[in-house]
Amino acid sequence: MKKSLGRQSGVQTVEVSLIDGKVDVTPKEDGQIDPAQLLKATYDSGVSVAELDMIARGKVVKDSSENLVLQVQPNRSFVLASNELSKGLEALAGSSTLVTVRGQLYKKPAGKKKVDASAPLKLLILEVQKKE
Prior knowledge:
The chain has helices at 2-6, 35-44, 84-87, and strands spanning 11-17, 22-27, 51-62, 68-73, 76-80, 98-107, 122-131. It is mostly beta strands and 132 residues long. A 5-stranded mixed beta barrel has the order 3-4-5-7-6. Strands 1-2 form a two-stranded antiparallel ribbon.
């Protein structure tokens, strides 16, 4: 799995802790990592994913469907799942304020449901770390 994830575009390092059951992926300084590709690469290596958490920095905007989105690059954004923390960022939509958040992009469905890898990932904000 470490090799499979390490070969993904934009990945600098991969650290695996078998004791904790966690994998930390660090992006390259100027790299972009596609979380959906990380999920796919992990499942393809024979390992199931329970959760995918991330720390991201970007601007809060609204997309064409009026969904709140965290835009981390001009061509990369994450739709925000609605919760109290995301609602608290609504006033920043369209401003130049940069926000750093810790969030959950994926959580394995309960039971033995098959994972739908084609479903769009929504970022559930767990913590707003910084506004600048």
